[in-house]
Design goal:
Shape: elongated
Structural class: mainly alpha
Low-confidence stretches: 1-6, 113-124
Distance between the termini: 38 Å
Helix content: over 70%
Length: about 200
C-alpha cells in the first residue's frame, strides 16, 4: 500500500483532479495536500485574516470538487485554475466585509513586494509572476488604481475619493492599466507559444 501512495504522490495534477471529481478518497487527499499551502497563501495574501483564509481554502477545494469536470487544460494549469478560484473567493469575501480602504501609503508597499515573502511565494506560479511583473512596469498611478480596483474591489468613485482625483481620471487610469496589461500579457503568451 505504501508503494501505491508513493505513486499517487507523483501523479500529474490533472490525474489528481480527476480523482477528486470521481470521489476517490486517496486521490482527493493527495490533491488537497499538494495544493493546500498555495491555496491558503493566496487567500491570506488577499484577506490578511488567517481564519477567513482557512474558510476560503475549504471553499476553494469544495468548488474544485464540484466543478472539476469543467476544468480545461488548454486554458491553464490546474495550479492556475485552483489559485484563480481561491483568489476570486477571497476577493468576494473582502468585498462582502466592506472593510476600510487600504491607505495609499500601504499600496506603494504592496506594489513593491518582492517574491521572497510567504504570500508572494504562495503566488509564485508562472501566471502570477508574469502578472506581477507586468503590473510593476505600469506607471505608478495606473498600478495603484489597478490594485485598488482589482485586488481590493474598490469602485472608480472610491478610487477617485481615496486618491483625491476626478472620477474620470480614476476610470482612465484603470482602463489604461488594463489595456497595457492585456497587451503585455498577450504578447508574452504569443512569444511563449513560439518558444515551445
Amino acid at each position: 500500500m505504501s508503494r501505491f501512495r508513493f505513486t499517487v504522490g507523483r501523479l500529474p495534477d490533472e490525474a489528481l483532479l480527476s480523482g477528486l471529481a470521481l470521489g476517490d478518497p486517496e486521490l482527493a487527499v493527495s490533491f488537497v495536500r499538494r495544493f493546500q499551502h498555495r491555496v491558503f497563501g493566496v487567500a491570506i495574501a488577499v484577506t490578511g485574516d488567517p481564519q477567513l483564509a482557512e474558510d476560503i481554502a475549504q471553499q476553494t477545494f469544495e468548488r474544485a470538487w464540484r466543478h472539476a469536470q469543467i476544468y480545461d487544460s488548454r486554458r491553464g494549469s490546474v495550479t492556475t485554475w485552483l489559485t484563480t478560484i481561491a483568489h476570486n473567493l477571497a476577493i468576494d469575501a473582502v468585498r462582502s466585509r466592506r472593510s476600510e480602504p487600504v491607505p495609499p501609503e500601504d499600496l506603494d508597499a504592496i506594489l513593491g513586494v518582492v517574491s521572497e515573502t510567504p504570500e508572494q511565494h504562495a503566488l509564485a506560479d508562472e501566471a502570477s509572476t508574469r502578472l506581477r511583473a507586468a503590473v510593476a512596469e505600469l506607471p505608478r498611478e495606473q498600478g495603484r488604481a489597478l490594485v485598488m480596483a482589482g485586488i481590493y474591489g474598490m469602485t472608480a468613485q472610491q478610487i477617485a475619493d481615496r486618491e483625491h482625483i476626478p472620477l474620470g481620471t480614476a476610470k482612465t487610469r484603470v482602463r489604461a492599466a488594463m489595456g497595457k496589461l492585456r497587451t503585455t500579457l498577450a504578447s508574452e503568451c504569443r512569444g511563449g507559444d513560439h518558444a515551445q
